[in-house]
Amino acid sequence: MKQLSSEAIERLLGEGIDPIDWAKHHFGDAHWGGDSCGCPDDRCIGHHHSGDERCQCLRALIDDYHAERS
Ligand SMILES: [Zn+2]
Ligand SMILES: [Zn+2]
Asked: What distance in angstroms lies between residue 35's CA and the mean position of ligand 1's atoms?
């Protein structure tokens, strides 16, 4: 089971999103089931991008999240 990285948590907090709410939004509870980069796809790192690259999924997902709540 992966945990959100501190970078992912910082990115979420910087967008005004509680990481707990982020987990709930994608998985229905506070338990994170995605990848450490913040993408709900637990194979994001290595598939969507490499480990030393910033996650682009997270950017798009954050935008969607805000759009849904506005
Ligand atoms: Zn991804
Ligand atoms: Zn990612």
From this structure: 8
CA-based R_g, the chain, Å: 11
Give 37 Cα–ligand 1 centroid separation in angstroms. Answer: 8
1, part of any domain: no
Q: Which residues pair with 45 in a beta bridge?
A: 49
For residue 12, being part of any structural domain is answered with yes
Rounded to the nearest angstrom, the gap between the alpha carbon of residue 25 and the centroid of all alpha carbons in its chain is 10
Token digits of residue 69: 């709540």
> pLDDT of the chain along its 70 residues, tens only?
789 999 999 999 999 999 999 999 999 999 999 999 999 999 999 999 999 999 999 999 999 999 998 8
Tokens of 66: 């805000």
Q: Is residue 65 part of a domain?
A: yes
